[in-house]
């Protein structure tokens, strides 16, 4: 393979910090149907274990322990949930204008039912469900929040279809 040729990298996982790990695992498994691939467990600040040493590298030395769980979407994308005992338990103010990650997106063709389920489980609908191409294509989207204030988006169709010019065109 030509080492100078760039190619699209795949998306592996996203890490999300939540105030209550067990409630987050419950929400994401019941509402999104995500698989629990590693149940909630504690990680300790210790140099004697590989995971402890790796977390010291990432977070520094100023922590004692935290909780972590691993989940997976239907297409194999990982969702790594963290809960730190001394972290701020309130979501940051929604400000997409500042640098940084401001949302992730999931996909469900039944957007109306999913948004209603998110709200019924303590989340929030941030906007009406909108059509990208009213009267032309069936693509819809909506911004929501989980019960912890984490903003994400719901699409009815894949990212490629939503932004391609060929799908559903005459």
Written overview of the protein:
With 170 residues, the protein is of the alpha+beta class. It has helices spanning 21-32, 50-59, 111-120, 159-163, and strands at residues 13-17, 35-44, 65-72, 78-83, 104-107, 124-125, 130-131, 140-145, 151-155. The strands form two sheets. Strands 5, 6, 7, 8 and 9 form a five-stranded mixed β-sheet that branches. A four-stranded mixed β-sheet has the order 1-4-3-2, sandwiched between helices. The chain is globular, with a radius of gyration of 19 Å. The mean pLDDT is 92.
* Global structural class: alpha+beta
Beta strand count: 9
Shape label: globular
**Amino-to-carboxy terminus distance:** 39 Å
Strand content: 25-35%
H and E order:
EHEHEEEHEEEEH
Mean pLDDT: 92
Major sheet summary line: 5 strands, mixed
Detail the poorly predicted runs: none
Helix-residue proportion: 10-25%
Cα-atom radius of gyration? 19 Å
- Tell me the number of helical segments per DSSP (H or I, 4 or more residues long): 4
């Amino acid at each position: 393979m030509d080492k100078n040729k760039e190619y699209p990298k795949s998306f592996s996982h996203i890490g999300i910090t939540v105030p209550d790990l067990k409630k987050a695992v419950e929400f994401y498994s019941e509402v999104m149907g995500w698989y629990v691939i590693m149940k909630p467990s504690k990680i300790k600040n210790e140099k004697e274990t590989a995971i402890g040493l790796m977390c010291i590298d990432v977070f520094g030395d100023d922590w004692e322990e935290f909780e972590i769980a691993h989940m997976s979407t239907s297409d194999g994308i990982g969702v790594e949930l963290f809960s730190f005992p001394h972290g701020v338990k309130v979501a940051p103010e929604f400000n997409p204008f500042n640098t940084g990650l401001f949302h992730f997106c999931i996909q469900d063709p039944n957007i109306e039912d999913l948004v209603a389920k998110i709200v019924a489980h303590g989340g929030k609908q941030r906007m009406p469900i909108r059509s990208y191409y009213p009267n032309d294509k069936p693509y819809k989207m909506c911004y929501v929040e989980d019960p912890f204030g984490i903003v994400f988006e719901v699409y009815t169709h894949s990212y490629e279809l939503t932004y391609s010019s060929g799908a559903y065109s005459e």
